[in-house]
Amino acid sequence: MRPFKLLSPAKINLILRITGKRKDGYHSLATLFQKITLYDRLSFHPVKDGKIHVICDNRSISQKKNLAYKAAKALWKPGLPGITISLEKKIPTGAGLGGGSSNAATVLLGLNKAWNLQLSNAELMKLGKNLGADVPFFLGGPRAWATGIGEKLTPLPNAEPFHIVLVKPRINIPTPSVYIAYHCKLTNKLRPVRIPREARGLILFEDTVRYLRNDLESTALGMHPVLARIKGLLRGKFDSDGVMLSGTGSTIFALFKSYKKAHSVRLEMLKRKWWCELAKPIITGG
Q1: Cα separation of 272 and 167, whole Å?
Q2: Over 80: is that where the pLDDT of 24 sits?
Q3: Is 134 annotated as catalytic?
Q4: Which residue out of 11, 35, 70, 129 is catalytically annotated?
Q5: CA–CA gap between residue 213 and residue 32 (Å, rounded)
Q6: Which of 35, 70, 134, 231 is catalytic?
Q7: Tens digits of per-residue pLDDT, 206-225?
Q8: CA dist., res. 123 & res. 113, Å (int)
Q9: What is the pairing mode between strands 52-56 and 82-88?
């Protein structure tokens, strides 16, 4: 086995609807996932000690809690070589961009090939689901309609290209806290939500903007007013075509047809000392 490197992409949720409450305590949902061109970088190096080591440049992420480490442990068995995985984080944590889930999926795909395990996609999906609800999406993509807790996936065709400004204040939002706060606001049992059939593709940019919806957004913005401030700036002063919270946050994304405008907005948002990056949807086949 030779050393190798892989890119691990982020995602945004263009639609996130809560459709019910499951007996296991999780909320069922319907969501449109889109991979984007913001990447972590993973480097794999074989070692002779037969152990798994994950070195992350973000010291706040301990090895045992790192999903990349858990993914490697899920694949390793006696007789396989050890591995050192060096993780360069560009996707912020606690951001609603799926960085940890993407890292786990990238490790599953990379080591399945490097260790010649010959696991099927279905087997990798099962392992991924056990690691996290978003992990199965990152094993395919780059665009999918997901239901259940996010693990039931329907691949979708590419969207018309657009530009994304990602803005994250210096806060991290634990995902469970938003779901708990959202559920506590409800006085009645959640009812299933029917998602418009035409919303599942969102090929044209105008359709993508028109169907943007996140049922958890108002809860997260109420918990953290800085998010509402960012959204107001992007939608009002900077006139984004569409603005929304990704997942449970804490990243607000703004969509633009024009790269020039998106670039200009990023420079303005950086002046406010927030993390901000530009990205595009990942496109396959062209």
Answers
A1: 10
A2: no
A3: yes
A4: 11
A5: 10
A6: 134
A7: 999 999 999 999 999 999 99
A8: 13
A9: parallel
Using alpha carbons, select from 223, 220, 282 the residue that is nearest to residue 252: 220
Across 180-202, average pLDDT: 67
Distance CA 84, CA 189 (A): 47
Three-class DSSP labels, 119-138: CCHHHHHHHHHHHCCCHHHH
Per-residue tokens: 194: 């029917």
Whose structure tokens read 């996932």? Answer: 33
Q: What is the pLDDT of residue 286?
A: 44
Distances (CA, A) of 261 to 119, 139, 160, 163, 256: 45, 33, 17, 9, 7
DSSP 8-state symbol, 64? G
Q: What is the pLDDT of residues 49-66, one digit of tens each?
A: 889 999 999 887 888 889
pLDDT for position 151: 82
Band (187; pLDDT cuts 50, 70, 90): very low
Beta bridge pairs of residue 249: none
- Of 270, 248, 116, 243, which Cα lies nearest the Cα of 182? 248
User: Mapping DSSP to helix (H, G, I), strand (E, B) and coil, where does residue 61 land?
Assistant: coil
Q: Read off the tokens for 173.
A: 């939002």
Which run of H or E residues covers position 207? helix 205-211
CA atoms within 13 A on the CB side of 261: 14
Residue at 253: amino acid letter: F
Report the chain's terminal Cα–Cα distance, integer Å.
31
> Dmax over Cα atoms in the chain, in whole Å?
59
Examine the pLDDT at 166 and tell me if it is beyond 80: yes
